[in-house]
Amino acid sequence: MKIEKVNIKEVFSNKENPRVIKDEKYQKLVKSINEFPQMLEIRPIVVNEDMVVLGGNMRLKACTEAGLKEVHIIRAGDLTNEQQKEFIIKDNVGFGEWDWDMIANEWEGSDLNEWGLDVWNVDINNMEETDLDLEEEFDPVGKSAGVQRVVFIFDGEDEAESYLNNLNIDFVKRNMAWQVNLSTKIL
Asked: Which of 7, 44, 49, 106 has CA 20 to 30 A from 97's CA?
């Protein structure tokens, strides 16, 4: 398979693609394409023999909005209908996980956010108690309670709630943080 550059009007979005990007994330994708169009050649849109997108539906839409006249594609014309359906799903599944220690130490949070990776940028020096909506004074290391605090970083709200529910832990959602009260103290 080879990468081709074709007129954007020759490529058709896949109306049966179940993956969407909305609002702010979509606008970040459009901005990303405008700022770094070379990435589209490195990661071309995958199409079938009818030039319908199998992989890159949202990129095609964003390319159109960005005003591109041509896009890079790879034709996957030898796939059966079942393989095409499988490809659409597998192309959008995220199997990997982020190494948050590396992310925190090697990249700037503002850059990551700009590039589309949702990170929580907080200036802890300018944070006030009301920012976390805490009912009691914020004790970052748990000294007053004699316990250690454990911090979990999740990829999103659904993952956090699922994880905490699976552990059967009572929690309260407070803005961007989940307050968890454990009866067992860590020694």
From this structure: 44
